């Protein structure tokens, strides 16, 4: 050990007691707060294509998945990453509610990929099902609804068994959905609305990334990045900013807080305004914020009282089983300008009315997330166990409560349920409380800390079909802590618009890259064909039909055994008559998972 390393290690240990397992796994990174925060570029629109039924524009984009070199260490070789458009994080999509989009992801990398738009109620064939891979040399068209309320989504890899590697090497990006209601609030916007994508990685001596490929439990990482840059600085004006935090780490959870260099050891107030599913009911004033993998939290930080100061974004130590290193308690530095500026943005006292699902006291399912026989399991089942991996079959439109139980061992598991926005109802053991910023909105990931039991409640709508739920420690996910649920087709709904039950529907699988598929004419025809089945534009009608159906059952929340289908319940809306061709109807190939 070099003398300087010994001094540093001794100093670190004497300051922090036994918190640190090691000071570095990577080569020492000496350039804290010396490089500026990168802002991912906005994804440019390729073209618009008219919807053949509604006539509205569909936005069309192309993204190439390909290698890039990133000079992480100024004194070593570059790291080779693989990112969307050769960027890591990928370009930021800026979307407007009500305008559908098709994104053609073109695989020019060496690994298979699958793209999940996290936070979107995409139809099953466009949701990034792990086995729906696009091989190198293929492309796939993902059709996205942009039909939900404004929120921060992210798009990232979900390919079977290699999600951790693909996401860690760069396949992750931000996807912002805007809507008029949110824009009218006049929150900080434009240059004052900034995505902050957190990640934690480890490097080899030559400056290349240390791969998580052979890890079986976690890769915590000792180098903290924001938007791809280790420990950056960001020059801010003394005014309000909106920060969109995403924890894109594969294994590290953060407890973030702001600290002024003039008041070390003191946590400064900030307001959490949004979570995974968009705005909270009201700003939640806090001094710190837990954010686990895949969670998104948006905050408003007011720098006006820190003129001319440096404000550091810090991370707490001793979070779950996460390994602390010398600088993993630091994230980035804000350098606040000296001169007053005009700030016309607003932090309203209320933000929106949250569409919580109807309360339901019964627990419909209990899922145990545990380490068993050296693997990661949900109720003892692995994703590879295709005959048994469908662990829930909520009837379409039903409200269900799921109890998520941490099987122990000191591990933590952020649990993501695809398709739905859920309410975090309760948490027992561990922190033993629902955080105010979890309770004041809807989520699609909940952090199941050590020993915790969390109850979540969701309306399994608007679509039926086969979707995944899993741990978002991506190493746990790849080692099979993933299962499926089938939102079942309601035979007695009298509304058969669905032909998107099967995420592996051959119609939408990846195709080989051929020049003739990339002509203007071919792209227009293909998208108009996909749009002709109206995957999303009848969502209001669909929800009305489901409301009417569940009204006949008394309540979405208390109705039981609604799957029988023995009492045909014709709804009276005209929508009930709307169907798509029977050939493309339900379960046409009889996959057992779809029954
Ligand atoms: Cu886990």
From TrEMBL:
A Pfam entry, by short name: Cu-oxidase_2
Domain named Plastocyanin-like: residues: 70-180, 370-487
UniProt keyword list: Copper, Signal
Biased composition (Low complexity): 561-582
Cleaved signal peptide residues: 1-21
InterPro entries tied to this protein: Cu-oxidase-like_N, Cu-oxidase_C, Cu-oxidase_fam, Cupredoxin
TM stretches of this protein: none
CDD domains to which the protein is assigned, alphabetical: CuRO_2_BOD, CuRO_3_BOD
Domain of life: Eukaryota
Region (Disordered): 561-595
UniProt family annotation: Belongs to the multicopper oxidase family.
Name the record gives this protein: Multicopper oxidase
């Amino acid at each position: 050990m070099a003398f300087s390393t010994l001094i540093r290690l001794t100093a670190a240990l004497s300051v922090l007691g036994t918190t640190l397992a090691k000071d570095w796994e990577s080569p020492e990174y000496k350039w804290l707060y010396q490089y500026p925060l990168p802002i991912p570029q906005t994804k440019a629109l390729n073209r618009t294509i008219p919807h053949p039924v509604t006539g509205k524009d569909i936005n069309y984009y192309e993204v190439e998945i390909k290698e890039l070199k990133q000079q992480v260490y100024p004194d070593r070789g570059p790291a080779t990453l693989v990112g969307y458009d050769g960027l890591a994080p990928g370009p930021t999509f800026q979307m407007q509610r009500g305008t559908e989009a098709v994104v053609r992801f073109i695989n020019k990398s060496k690994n298979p990929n699958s793209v999940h738009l996290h936070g979107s109620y995409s139809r099953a064939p466009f949701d990034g099902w792990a086995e729906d891979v696009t091989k190198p040399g293929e492309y796939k068209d993902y059709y996205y609804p942009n039909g939900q309320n404004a929120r921060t989504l992210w798009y990232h890899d979900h390919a079977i068994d290699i999600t951790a590697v693909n996401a860690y090497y760069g396949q992750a990006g931000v996807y912002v959905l805007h809507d008029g209601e949110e824009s009218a609030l006049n929150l900080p916007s434009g240059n004052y609305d900034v995505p902050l994508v957190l990640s934690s990685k480890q490097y080899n001596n030559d400056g290349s990334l240390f791969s998580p490929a052979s890890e079986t439990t976690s890769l915590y990482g000792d180098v903290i990045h924001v938007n791809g840059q280790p420990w950056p600085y960001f020059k801010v004006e003394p005014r309000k900013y909106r920060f969109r935090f995403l924890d894109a780490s594969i294994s590290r959870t953060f407890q973030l807080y702001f600290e002024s260099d003039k008041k070390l050891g003191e946590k400064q107030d900030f307001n959490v305004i949004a979570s995974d599913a968009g705005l909270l009911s009201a700003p939640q004033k806090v001094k710190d914020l837990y954010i686990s993998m895949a969670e998104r939290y948006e905050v408003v930080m007011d720098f006006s009282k820190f003129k001319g100061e440096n404000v550091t974004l810090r991370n707490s130590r001793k979070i779950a089983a996460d390994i602390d290193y010398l600088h993993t308690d630091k994230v980035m530095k804000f350098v606040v300008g000296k001169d007053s500026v005009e700030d016309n943005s607003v932090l309203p006292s209320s933000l929106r009315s949250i569409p919580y699902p109807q309360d339901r006291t019964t627990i419909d399912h209990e899922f145990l997330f545990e380490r068993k026989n050296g693997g990661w399991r949900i109720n003892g089942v692995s994703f590879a166990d295709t005959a048994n991996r469908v662990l829930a079959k909520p009837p379409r439109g039903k409200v269900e409560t799921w109890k998520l139980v941490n099987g122990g061992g000191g591990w933590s598991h952020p649990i993501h349920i695809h398709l739905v926005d859920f309410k975090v109802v309760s948490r027992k053991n561990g922190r033993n409380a629902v955080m105010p910023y979890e309770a004041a909105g809807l989520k699609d990931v909940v952090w199941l800390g050590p020993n915790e039991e969390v109850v979540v409640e969701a309306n399994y709508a608007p679509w039926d079909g086969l979707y995944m739920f899993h741990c978002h420690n991506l190493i746990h996910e790849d080692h099979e802590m993933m299962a499926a649920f089938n939102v079942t087709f309601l035979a007695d709904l009298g509304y058969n618009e669905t032909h998107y039950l099967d995420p592996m529907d051959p119609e939408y699988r990846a195709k080989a890259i051929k020049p003739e598929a990339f002509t203007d004419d071919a792209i227009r025809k293909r998208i108009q064909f996909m749009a002709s089945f109206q995957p999303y534009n009848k969502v209001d009608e669909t929800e009305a039909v489901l409301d009417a159906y569940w009204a006949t059952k008394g309540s979405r929340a208390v109705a039981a055994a609604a799957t029988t289908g023995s009492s045909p319940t014709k709804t009276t809306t005209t929508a009930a008559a709307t169907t798509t061709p029977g050939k493309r109807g339900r379960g046409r190939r009889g996959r057992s998972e779809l029954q």
